[in-house]
Design goal:
Helix content is about 15%, strand content about 30%. The protein contains seven helices and twelve strands.
Length: about 300
């Protein structure tokens, strides 16, 4: 007997932990600090969006197998903030026969949407959720905070990064991989035990790929006016020749691929390319929509009307 009923997998309710309360950039605290968040009109400092990605990994390995860790892509639009103490559940649609892309979403315990996403298995997986969203972007009006940015702008230099187990990941990420693994919602021996993985190396968790990719982002020196507070509005992580390994050296190159605007934000979309140490083999990519809050920039109205 066959049915047309769409089926999906869901994980347990989890309480993701806040680890960015002490985050600093450009000389000030971030939106993840409770007092800063309250100044900007939010009830508390939100948990960083990619923290929720971990809840999807067991479901996507169930759907696509080990290959998803090597060639998978998770493309997410964040919808509502989560604060510590709230519970979140991840959902993944079961794919149709032969399909390489599935719909994903996360909800709070009361049904409030947290994020929507596509997950796919490359390289022939077609456009992702964020590629579809970018295709619909309207050209921004007069930008103020991002007035000195332009499409195709590249980072000022190539950045060299690595993530070792005890390495503190700087002011942007004031914790180590080992500290994250103590609080991560879905842990695995593959994140810490090289003898447990098929590759003979411990692998970097999906949510920590974001940390690796942003660790040295200040070196890109994109001329965003300061002081300003921002947040992640959209984020995509794609493995091309993955996974990425703990303790491995990588080289990063960045490029601005879109500029956009909403009533409350100005956004710059950066595609980060993660290569092997010699810069000859592309291993992974991240697409990130940095949304800067207009009202967090003191001179916004004056400069906008000038």
């Amino acid at each position: 007997m066959s049915f047309d009923t769409p089926l999906y997998l869901c994980g347990p309710l989890r309480e993701p932990r806040q680890m960015l309360a002490d985050q600093e950039y450009s000389g000030h605290t971030s939106i993840h600090d409770d007092s800063m968040a309250e100044k900007l009109g939010f009830r508390a400092g939100p948990i960083e969006g990619p923290t929720h990605f971990s809840q999807f990994v067991p479901l996507l390995v169930e759907v696509f197998g080990q290959a998803w860790l090597e060639r998978g892509c998770f493309s997410s639009h964040f919808q509502n903030m989560v604060v510590e103490g709230e519970q979140v559940r991840a959902f993944v649609e079961r794919p149709a026969a032969g399909a390489h892309r599935v719909r994903c979403w996360a909800e709070k315990a009361d049904g409030t949407p947290v994020l929507e996403a596509s997950a796919s298995l490359g390289p022939d997986d077609g456009p992702t959720l964020l590629e579809e969203r970018m295709a619909k972007l309207r050209p921004p009006g007069k930008l103020v905070i991002l007035s000195e940015l332009h499409l195709g702008m590249r980072g000022a230099e190539e950045e060299r990064v690595r993530m070792s187990p005890e390495q503190r990941m700087g002011n942007l990420y004031p914790f180590s991989l080992n500290q994250k693994l103590e609080r991560i919602t879905e842990n695995s021996p593959w994140y810490s035990d090289s003898t447990a993985t098929p590759w003979g190396r411990a692998i970097i968790p999906l949510e920590m790929v974001s940390v690796l990719a942003e660790y040295t982002s200040k070196q890109a020196a994109f001329p965003v006016k300061q002081p300003v507070v921002g947040l992640f509005a959209d984020q995509e992580i794609r493995m091309i020749d993955g996974p990425l390994f703990v303790g491995e050296d990588y080289l990063i190159r960045r490029e601005i691929v879109a500029l956009s605007e909403s009533k409350r934000t100005e956004s710059y979309w950066v595609r980060t390319h993660i290569y092997n140490a010699s810069g000859t083999e592309l291993k992974a990519q991240m697409l990130l929509n940095h949304a800067t809050l207009k009202h967090s920039y003191a001179n916004y109205e004056a400069e906008a009307s000038a």
